[in-house]
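Anyone else keep sequences and structure tokens together like this?

Example one:
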Amino acid sequence: MAGETVEVTESQKLVIRRVLAEARRQGREVLTAPEGRVIAEAYGIPVPAEGVAEQAEDAVALADRIGFPVVLKIVSPDIPHKTEAGGVRTGLDSAAEVREAFTAIVANARAYAPQARIAGVQVQQMVPEGQEVIVGAVTDHTFGKVVAFGLGGVLVEVLKDVTFRLAPASAEDAASMLDGIRAAEVLRGVRGGPPVDRAALVDLIVRTSQLAADFPELAEVDLNPVIASADGAVAADVRMLLSAGPPTERPRHSREEILAAMRRLMRPRSVAVIGASGTPGKIGHSVLRNLLDGGFPGEIHPVHPTADDILGRKAYRSVLEVPGEVDVAVFAIPAPLVPAALEEAGRKGVPNAVLIPSGFAETGEHALQERIVAIGAEWGIRLLGPNIYGYYSTWQDLCATFCTPYDVKGGGALTSQSGGIGMAILGFARTTRTGVSAIVGLGNKADVDEDDLLTYFGEDPHTDCIAMHLEDLKDGRAFVAAARETVPRKPVVVLKAGRTGAGARAAGSHTGALAGDDAVYDDILRQAGVIWAPGLADLLEYARALPVLPVPRGDNVVVITGAGGSGVLLSDALVDNGLRLMDIPADLDAAFRRLIPPFGSAGNPIDITGGEPPATYEAALRLGLSDPRIHALVLGYWHTLVTPPAVFAELTGRVVEEFRAQGIEKPVVASLAGDTEVEEAAARLFERGVVAYPYTTERPVAVLGAKYRWARAAGLLLGS
């Protein structure tokens, strides 16, 4: 495919550096259109023929040489939005029109910005008609350089139909962007119009993204509009902005360094509690009590400046006095005391500090937080927190928190940036008896963040699914790298809080204004294979249910229901979640018809009707599981005395387990409608590998859809 590589010589890059240096020398952050053209041409970005005229007659001469019709645009480093200033005229077909337009444009510009420096008027070839799109690159505070694509011109501000990828983007990334906008069909040709040249657009996106990656000092690259037609794509307008200063370099650890530290954090042999207390009600008491009562098999060392013994354990005046190695130091002391104690932990060689206290950046104490970060970096200590509830590592019987204990072991690892959300996770796990491998608080994320934990959980044999609540990412690229490493083996679910457009309102160009946190997070994390959770309940249910469901092997989903109304809602939910109702072949349709009453309905959904006995449910389920053309089943149960909820749960669980024993594993989800007995029936089904919910048709299908999204991202679905 075109655009897989971009060849730019060092001499071409030198030309660009000179252009940027001259703009810097003049104290400008906005490049002129001619400067933008020089840079675009160096990267093979197609632009119309053009020139700059200082006088009206020069403009006429240029127009004659370029060929009519032409476009005239004001050239001024102080007027970034030329149209608003009355600085653009299009469709000029004669010398007289060019003269008049030149005079009017200059007059409009002077009236709009009297102090503006005017370098002349750009005379540009009029690009033939086509579909207006936007291609651009912007510097996102989380992900760094990202490339954008969407409908251009006026529509970009009205519809905001834009998609984003990390820069540099591959040809495959760029092609997915063409299909990733809501109006993708427009590019394929509508109402008899020809489709655009997709290869040319892909090439243009790749080149723009490579330019942004090669020159990080370019804060924004804005090609709007790009005129796309069946014959190619041309950037009719080029706008580029320089950044105010050099890009911020983020400190990063290697994968090996992350794994070494996180293994000692999550599987410690020795834990010291700094600020341990024998007084109930104190955080240091709660942490120590949880470690002791939780059965942690490693060494537990209370640290207190005056106590000799706390809760039956020898106490030490300082962590420096603790014998042997300490893998984790849990800090339960006031924030102002943390730096000195952290210094001692550094001299002791402690690799991990769990910082429970608040009173750092979240309360405006940024200098204090920066100080502990510097101490951690100096001594090689990874910092979890501060301002957290602690963490649980159930397979190590480790409960290092001042909150309620939890010890049900399972495959879900959950993290939260918020303490309150962490406790919601805990309560949900307890209510649903969801087994977890870990629950980790991240708080202010002064050091350890989601990509560190994702790297660890990705290789943790006890973890089958990772679910993360986050308000931001410190290093979006590191997270994407960790996600791409993990997703082929395990689902990664993210709930992004704080999804606002505040960042968009502060941007200075069309591309920047469309790069709000929500849009960029959504596109880039989905592209990395992350499952996006719409809300907290979804995050928790995905974490609970995804490890239960087998991997689907194909797209054919069949709905078997005892109630027609449920079948309709379940069908709607399937479409909403990107799933497809299987087209039932004639032989399979006939087989189902033999099982259901004449007044039932075959096809898909298959309505066996509510008055059928357990045998009908069982026969339909067996047929659905046994036919290899069916890849997943959605069951809609209707509570009747003929087939009570407990009976339905028993027969469904038994049949699914029987087929599983034969090596036939398919995702089976169920929606149970009825009286309160369906709650217990749903719980029983969950225990037996059937994801079931009472009173809802949406949730079981949403979970199934999440499993399918992961299977596709992991390349496990046949044909994916």
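And example two:
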Amino acid sequence: MDRRARTYRGALALLLAGGILMTGCGGSGTSNDSASAERGVAGNGGPAGGKQPPAAPSAAPGQDEDGASQAEDGAARESVAPDYLSTFALDVDTASYGYARRTLGDGQLPAADTVRPEEFVNSFRQGYERPEGNGFAVSVDGARSDAADWSLVRVGLATKAASDTGERPPAALTFVVDISGSMSEPGRLDLAKTSLGILADELRDDDSVSLVTFSDEAETRLPMTRLQGNRTKVRDAIEEMEPADSTNVAAGVERGYEEAVEGHRKGANNRVVLLSDALANTGETDADAILERIGDARKEYGITLFGVGVGSDYGDELMERLTNKGDGNTTYIADETQARKVFVDQLPAHVELRARDAKAQVAFDRKTVQQFELIGYENRKVADDDFRDDSVDGGEVGPGHTVTALYAVRLRKGASGHVATATVRWLDPKTRKAHEETGSVETGAIGGKLWDGAGARLQVTAVAAYFADTLRGGDLPGTPALGELATRARKLASSTEDSSVEKLATAIEQADRIKNGGGDEPPGDQGEGELG
């Protein structure tokens, strides 16, 4: 197998689309774009990051407990520099948050292993500045948490929004729809059909679609067909879908990619769209093995996978791994309102690309930072040495997307100066030329109190991250109790006039009630948050 396959097995899989911004908020924010850069990341290093959910933060590798470096000379320091880096693939997934809201609305807490904090955070608008061109705008800011010596540092990336004129390359979309028996329940196949009907109305005449269904076997219902003059034919194929037997996801995905290759259009956005509850019970059920079968189609033709999850019982792990390793992203829809958000409001972001194989690397400065931990992204990590290896997959990012990486950072007492430098690297979707953009942050930009003076959007980000960490049993420094988080979310919903923040407050209240044994309330709109 090639290096990409080895990387999937050896490191935690990388992922999709997302991003990194950095607004200097009082610090010295810098920006630098370098095509095909070969230099190392700037910065003096810093503590190593990342932790599994239940683990407590620890001193960086190569450091004593107080954070002092064990290296004594320049050469030794050079050898431990990667220990001070945090490297991950960008991710624009939001399914974890959408599914958590659905589960809470049904009166249950989500399983801890389905809670991914980065997907909670990335479900909300961030208000980042966007670039003028097709690259990324990078910004970094932060604030002090309620825990002594600990701050939150927000790193994010934003792409330019889609053109107001609606101009974009044509799309060639292969829909792969689960029609197994489990999809017969309300809110599954019926919602998938509604969603595809909405999408068929939104696509342009020069777009093309094909339709594959699967239960115990896969079947092509419609070969790749231009929309112009064929909308009735497409709608009829959608309406004729009825639930059948078992769930053979592997057969559906494999047939879907065969159709996508057969109908591949040069210069178009070629994508497979999988709509399923992902409860595979027939055939191959392992994501890696499923994608192994269609590896050549992904590599040679650049076909990406967009997963749309449905159902109160939902195979979150399978869908997420499929899309992560299928160069795509995943979302979750619970009703027609959310379907319209995904397939109408967010359509360009789901069918176009601004960047391929996007990765981020954050270098913390050991002179000012004693410890740090990346909140989430456990299965998005990339080996530090692979940051500039463009054969290693990163995330695919569309127009109008933002991705945020939130860090808990413990500063050294009395520290002043540079805190971190963040770099994002991506490939141009057309030319495959590598580009980089950087940003940095100083202690002055993260010195204000989080709940007293920080911007509303940073506070929303913190509430979402703390909420997710609580649901999965984490122990982030400075995490408020659920009741306090709900109160803060309510105030933020009022100040921002953002309905998605209002829904966040409701979800936190539901979790608090369930944890304390309180009664359930009727579920409301369970759709996920907004595109950043």
